[in-house]
Every structure is written in C-alpha cells, then in structure tokens.
Design a protein that fits this description.
With 240 residues, the protein is of the alpha/beta class. The chain is built from nine helices and nine strands.
Length: 240
C-alpha cells in the first residue's frame, strides 16, 4: 500500500484502484483517505480478481496508472463558452470495451468535440490500448470523470446543453432534430444501452434509421454517425 501512496503523493494520475475485500488496519484507512482526498475511485473486489490480474505479491491493492490527466467538467465548459465556441460533449454511460472507447475518443477529437465524460466506475480502462485505439486522440481531448452521470447531466442542462440520447427505444431520426445548439451526445453500454435514469432526463431520444437486416450498430459507429450529423448541421448553418 505504501508504494501506491507514494505514487499518488508524487502526482501520478490513477485510472482506477482495486482493493481486496476485507482489508483492515491503519494502512488501509490512510490509503482510503488519500484516495478520497485526490478523487481517485477505488473498488473493493475479491482476492481472486486481484490474482487474475497479476501473479505478483499485490498486498491486496492493485492500481492502474492513467496515461492521461483528467479534466474538470466545469472548467472545460467554462473555457468553451469563453472561447466563443458552441459546446459539443460526448458522454459514455458504461462503455466498457477499450477499443470502442478509444475509437469514440478518436472520432470526437477529430470532429472538434470538447470533452468526453465517463463515470468513475463501470467504464473502460484508460490504458495504452485505449491510447493506441484512439490514435493518440486521448492526448488532445479532455476526458472528465464523474461520480454521478445523472448529476453531471443535470449540471450540463442547467448550463444550457441539450442531452441527445441514442437508443433503439427512440422513434426520431437524428436528421429530424435541430442539433445546432450546445449539446451532449449520450451513448450507452454495449449490451444494456443507456440507463433508464439518463433516458428519462434526456431532451432528445433518437434512433439511427437502418434499411438492412442488421438490427443494431456498434456503439462507436453509432456515435460517429451522430457526431458527424451534428457537424453536418452546423456546417450547413455556417457554425461548427
């Protein structure tokens, strides 16, 4: 535990931390307090999971160092407005596949989106594979973590952004919706989709029309279509 505490004190950015269930004692208490003070999410897991990750002596704690620095959603939003740009955010609700995550970050950065918002838990690991899949885009776009996607979504709405949720439950096509204002695109988990709580508070629920026999799209492909449609409409109106 002490090496992890020293790494945090030295300024290393942690993606996530796994702590063995049942750990007790002063060292664990100090570590938990340190993680809380630095806003680093940790998850208590069975010892078997830690053993599957590494065969080394993990002492009940495994940390994943993030290759990127995480942004603050309020700071990114304020900077976007101050620059005179129209905010375009991408929120990922439980996207766990590293390749999907990296691909969406790559598309978002290429299309001029200002931030990608992810939950602290139940999200793809931000590691070397994610950076590779993003073609380095993760170094050029703000990734903001939040303990509550619901609270963050409400904050974005209060700040003037509309929430555009992509779901098979939607009945409206993206091209039928005016996407020119400040907006946050929400994409869901590869299997479960967007949580019902987020769908309920979303301003628009859209479904990408398809004419083939395949009933669904890969989440990163669907995200790319929606992000492109936003840019297409803005280019048409003379504003990106």
């Amino acid at each position: 535990m002490r090496p992890l505490a020293e790494a945090i004190a030295a300024g290393k950015v942690m993606d996530k931390v796994f702590v063995q269930k049942g750990l007790r004692g002063e060292l664990f208490r100090e570590l938990r307090e340190l993680l809380g003070n630095h806003g680093i999410p940790f998850q208590q897991v069975p010892e078997e999971k830690l053993n599957r990750i590494t065969s080394r002596n993990h002492q009940g704690v495994i940390a994943f160092v993030s290759p990127i620095d995480f942004g603050d959603i309020s700071e990114v939003l304020a900077a976007t407005f101050e620059s005179g740009e129209i905010p375009k955010f991408l929120m990922l609700d439980g996207v766990t596949d590293v390749r999907n995550f990296g691909a969406m970050c790559r598309t978002a950065e290429a299309l001029g989106f200002h931030a990608v918002v992810v939950p602290e838990k139940s999200s793809a690991a931000i590691n070397e594979d994610a950076v590779k899949t993003s073609a380095g885009a993760l170094f050029n776009i703000s990734v903001c973590r939040t303990g509550s996607l619901i609270n963050t979504s409400k904050y974005l709405q209060e700040s003037g952004l509309r929430l555009l949720a992509a779901s098979e439950k939607g009945s409206t096509s993206p091209h039928e919706v005016n996407l020119n204002g400040p907006i946050c695109v929400i994409m869901g988990n590869e299997e479960k989709g967007i949580s019902n709580d987020l769908i309920r508070i979303s301003d628009e629920l859209v479904r990408i029309p398809m004419s083939g026999k395949t009933s669904s799209l890969n989440v990163s492909v669907a995200a790319g279509i929606l992000m492109y449609e936003i840019n297409r409409q803005r280019f048409t109106q003379g504003a990106v």
